[in-house]
Amino acid sequence: MAAPAIDYLSGLNDAQREAVVQLNGPVLMLAGAGTGKTKALTCRIAHLLATKSARPDEILAVTFTNKAAREMKTRIGSLTNGVSEGMRWLGTFHAICVKQLRRHAELVGLKSSFTILDTDDQLRLLKQLVRAADIDEKRWPPRMLAGIIDGWKNKAWMPSQVPVDEASAYDGMGVELYTAYQQRLKDLNACDFGDLLLHMVTIFQTHADVLENYQRWYKYILVDEYQDTNVAQYLWLRLLAQGHKNICCVGDDDQSIYGWRGAEVGNILRFEKDFPGAHVVRLEQNYRSTGHILGAAAGVIDANRNRLGKTLFTAGEDGEQVRLIGHWDGEEEARWIGEEIESLQRGTRGLDPIPLNSMAILVRASHQMRAFEDRFLTIGLPYRVIGGPRFYERLEVRDAMAYFRLAVSQDDDLAFERIVNTPKRGLGDKAVQTIQMTARSNGVNLVEGARMCVEGGLIKGKGGNALRELVQGLDRWNQKLRGPLVRVNENERLVVIDDDAGSVAAEYEYGPPEITHIELAEMILDESGYTGHWQNMKTPEAPGRLENLKELVNALENFENLQGFLEHVSLIMDNAKEDEGDMVTIMTLHGAKGLEFPAVFLPGWEDGIFPSQRSMDESGLKGLEEERRLAYVGITRAERHCTISFVSNRLIFGRWQSQMPSRFIDELPEEHVEVLTPPGLYGGNFGAAGMAAQANPASDGMASDLHERVASADVYNSPGWRRLQQRSQQRPMSQSKESRSMTIDMTATSS
Ligand code: ATP
Ligand code: MG
C-alpha cells in the first residue's frame, strides 16, 4: 500500500491554498517578500503529483539558482513521500535549456556533444576575432564586446535581429563581430551561456513541431522569482506555455534586482496581458519577519515611485526594532559585528542562543567582505562565503599579491610566473620558456633569469623591452621596500655591499623606507600597469575588480609592513575551511534573494557604497530605484534580528574618505529603528569591545586605540552622523514624519 500523502494543504493560508489548487490556466502570484510564494509554489507541485495531474517529468519548474532547485526538490520529496523522484525538468533556465538543446542541437548547426564555453574561453575567442579585425584593443577592450553580445543575447537578438540604433556599438563593428563570433562557435561545436536560451528560442520559433512536442510534454509550468527574467527567458516561457497556458509564475516587482543583467520587471507586470483571464493571487501576510523588520522594509521601498505598491502584515510579534549603528571605520564595523555575532551565539539581551548558521552578513559589493573575513579569521569565528571565492582567492587579488611577494623576495618563482605576462607584455609561452631555461641552467631565480635574457639579447623587441621594465621595476620596488642605503660611519671609505656573499659592510645599512608600504603597494600596482589593465576594461565586472584592488591596499593599513601582511594572508589561505558545520554566512545582497536568516547584518550603508556610486551618478531614478529594491531584499531576509551599519570614514586606496550615511537610512521609519550608540561613546549601548575599552582602556590595543580616537578626534562629527543624532532627538512622531518627507524630497532632487 502506498504511504499516506502528507497533508501539505493544511500549512497554507486561504490565498496560498487558492494558488495551489487552481491547477488549470494561468496563475500569477504577485506578492511581497516572505509571504510564502516559494512555499506555495512548492506545494503546488506536490499537489500536481498527489492528484496525479502530472507525472514528475511532465512538470517544468524554473528556479533562480541550482541551490534553490535542490532545496525545492527536497521539500517536494518530503511533502509527497518521495514522489518527486524523476522531476527532470526542475532547475534553472540554463540547466533546463542545456538538456533541451542537446536533443535538438543539429537544428542550430551544432552536434549534441557541443561544449559550453565559460567566460574565459568566451573572451579568448572574442580576442582572436578583435585582433583579426585589426581593432585597437586598448580603446575597445574585447571584454566590452563580450558585455555587449551578452546584452543582445539576453534580449534574444540574433545578429540579424540587432536593431539599427545599436549598430554603432563597439566602434560600429559590434554586429559584424557578433556574426563572426557565432560562426566561430558553430565551427568549434560550442556555445556560450547566453546561447543556451537563444538557440532554444530560435528552435521553437522556427520548428513548430518541436515546440508543439514540448508544449504537450510539459503539462504544467511553474516559475519562481519571475520578476527577474530577461527577454530571452520570457520568450522561451511564453512559447512553451502557449498551448495549454497552465503556467504559474510567482514574483515580487519590489524585488527586481537584476535589471543590470537584462532582467525586465515589465515581464511580471505584463503577465495578465500575455495570459488573458489569468488568475491573480495576492498574498499579504508575511510569515518570515517580525513587525519592526517589516515596517522598516516597507518604509524604504515606499520611497520608490515605480511600483505597484503592496501592503504586508504579520500576525506575529513586533519583536526587536531594526538596530542602526554608525562606526568610526570599516575595521571597527567588522570588529563590532564579530562581537555581536558571538554574543548572539552565546545568547544576549535575554535572547536564546542563535547558531552561526542562522546568521548572515549581506554586503552590497563583494570587496566589502574582506574586512569581515580578516576579522573573523583573527578571532576564529567560522564563516562561509557564498557565491564567489573568498577575498584572497580572487583573481585580481592573487595577481596583486604576486607582485607584492616579488617586491619582498625575488626568489618567488611562482609569483613571477604568475605576473610575467599579466598585464600583457607581449611575452608568449616561448619567451617564458627561454626565461625558465636560462634560470635553470644558471641556477638562479626567474627574475635573475629574465635579467640575463634581456641583457644577453635572448628576448628582444617589444617583449624584451617590457621584460626589462618589469625587472627594473622589481628592483626598484624591492629597494623602496628596504629603504635607501645610508652611510653609518661618516669617516670611512665607501664600501660596496655584497649581498650575494652575505657580508653587509658595517659602514652602510638600510635606512628607513622613504615611503610607506601602502604607498609602495599603490606604486607597484600603478607602475606594473596592473591597475591600468583593469581601468581600461569597460566590462561590467571590471569596476568590481578595481574595488577589490583598492580594498587590498586598504587591508595593508592594519600591518606594519608588507612582509607581515603577506604572512597573515598565507595563514588565512592555510585556514581555509570546509563549507560545513556551524558558520556565519557572508554573501552579497544579490545572492541572498529568496533566502532567510534569523539574524541579518547589513553593513556599509553609505552613499557611494549602498546605493552604489554608479547608481547615484546615473541620470534618472532607474538605478537608484533598483538599489532601493535591493535594500528591501536585504531587510526582508531577516526573521528576527536586523542590524544596519555605516561608517564615518572609509579607507579608499589607502586614503581616508568621509562617508555619508546612506540615503536609505533616512527612509527607515523611526518607530521601527533603534539607533545604537557606538562603542566607546556617550556611555550608551556598548558592544563588548567598547565595554572592554571602558573597563580598561589599555587592555586591548585595538580598543584603546579606538578610545583614543574617540577622545581626540571628532569621530562622530561627520555631517551624516550629526544628521542622525538630530533625527533621533526629533520626536514626537508628527515632527519626524515631516523631517522624513523632507529628506525624501532631498533625495529626489539630488539624484
Ligand atoms: P521571497 O519573496 O523572499 O522569496 P517568499 O514569498 O517566497 O519570499 P517563502 O520563502 O515561501 O516566501 O516563505 C517565507 C517563510 O514563511 C518561510 O519560512 C515559510 O516556511 C513560511 N511560510 C510561508 N507560508 C506560511 C504559512 N502559510 N504558514 C506558516 N509559515 C509560512
Ligand atoms: Mg521565494
TrEMBL record:
Its EC number is 5.6.2.4. It catalyses: Couples ATP hydrolysis with the unwinding of duplex DNA by translocating in the 3'-5' direction; ATP + H2O = ADP + phosphate + H(+). One of its GO terms (cellular component) is DNA helicase complex. Pfam families: UvrD-helicase, UvrD_C. It comes from Octadecabacter ascidiaceicola. Residues 10-290 form the UvrD-like helicase ATP-binding domain. GO terms for molecular function: 3'-5' DNA helicase activity; ATP binding; ATP hydrolysis activity; DNA binding. ATP binds at A31, G32, A33, G34, T35, G36, K37, T38. Residues 723-736 have a biased composition (Low complexity). Residues 723-742 are annotated as: Disordered. One of its GO terms (biological process) is response to radiation. Belongs to the helicase family. UvrD subfamily. Residues 291-594 form the UvrD-like helicase C-terminal domain. CDD domains: DEXQc_UvrD, SF1_C_UvrD. Has both ATPase and helicase activities. Unwinds DNA duplexes with 3' to 5' polarity with respect to the bound strand and initiates unwinding most effectively when a single-stranded region is present. Involved in the post-incision events of nucleotide excision repair and methyl-directed mismatch repair. This is DNA 3'-5' helicase. Keywords: ATP-binding, DNA-binding, Helicase, Hydrolase, Isomerase, Nucleotide-binding. PROSITE patterns: UVRD_HELICASE_ATP_BIND, UVRD_HELICASE_CTER.
